Amino acid sequence: MNMAKVNGKKLNRRVAFRIHEQANLFYRKLDHDGQMQAPENFHDLLGNSNPPDTVSPQALPDSQSRENDTLNVNISASGIAFTAQEPLQAGDYLMLRILLLSNMTAIMTCCKVVYCKPSNPYENDRYPYLIGAQFVNLTPEDTALLNKHIDKTKTQQRAVNGLLLSLALLILAMPDAAFGLLMGLIHHVFEVVLHVAHLMFEYAEYNLDHVIEHAFHTDTHTTQVIVFYILCTLGLVGLYFIWRIIPRHCRRAGNSLIAFWCRKKASCLYYWGEQSLADKIKFVGITLAAVGCYGYFAI
Length: 299
What we know:
Layout: E1 3-6, E2 9-12, E3 19-30, H1 42-47, E4 56-57, E5 71-75, E6 79-84, E7 93-100, E8 105-118, E9 129-135, H2 140-173, H3 175-216, H4 220-274, H5 277-298
Helix pairs in contact: 2-3, 3-4
């Protein structure tokens, strides 16, 4: 949850809409004098591969657009959250360079660390510590660029969420019809896949028969035996590659679902913690009433 405690009270840090993005990210810890400003040689430091002694480099992967160098970051117009190899202290100042890979937007700024906590173990391309930082000198141009990108992503997310909500309402309104439609679609897809596989098998067998018969001048029985063993070998090789590929993708999909669940759970807990006792009672009452009405009238 994106909350901190100041004088025993919860402080809401979610002051802007946030999105999850893949980005190349590079940072260096800076010495500061208490002023929320970047040093005068800030842009020189960003491009300097040999920083001075006052700047201790602590870097995420080099800023090169390769998949294994990317991180999933949580970014808004006011701050960013990312994972790091080493813990940082709240109040540390960082020199930050961000390259958003979805639209190749590059942002350079200075930020102040707000919190440091263990990262989500189910996230891909992560490091042990989750760092939350607030931008302190983001230029108006970069702010406008970032807001434009976030608004575009927010619109896309709303469209997807609206589609999913419509689908959920359709399932709740007509569960029998929705289940029948889903089963019919799965059956149709399965039937098409089997038909295509059968055609491919027949095509391969027919051509192999002709190739073997004309190349080695064998009779029909010998040709069929040779083709049978060739197809069995190809089938075993295909099954081996499927066995190597499918489990890895299943694990990746499972981890993505778990990470999505963890994010949504954290958001729900944050929202719940922000509500007053009266609002919580209203929410529980309305939910129970809605479930009761649905169970009584729809089922």
